[in-house]
Amino acid sequence: IGNPPVIFLDEPTTGLDPQARIEVWQAVKELADNGTTVLLTTQYLDEAEHLADRIAILHEGRILVNGTLAELKQLLPPAKVEYVEKQPTLEDVFLTLVGTKA
Length: 102
Fold this sequence. Notes:
By secondary structure, the chain is α+β, with helices and mostly antiparallel strands. It contains 4 helices and 4 strands. It has a single domain (6-98), classed as Rossmann fold (3-Layer(aba) Sandwich), CATH 3.40.50.300. 36% of the residues lie in helices and 21% in strands.
């Protein structure tokens, strides 16, 4: 990829297996850490949570809101504490089998 000042990525992890998705996430983080501005579109909201400094939520071609993850979370009522038994996901199983940690 080199060392561009800005890079546009449109749905870079669509269709990737979990291991390849993690590798793309690492590459995006490295680019950002080295000063590249990364503009990324995604429908995977967990991806935006992990990768983005700022997030814009679009709906029907219009930006509804934008800000940091913390700012966007403040738009909702405070979280409630609930007990939830966490079971491994299929992605956890896959990554364990191929020897990669999430």
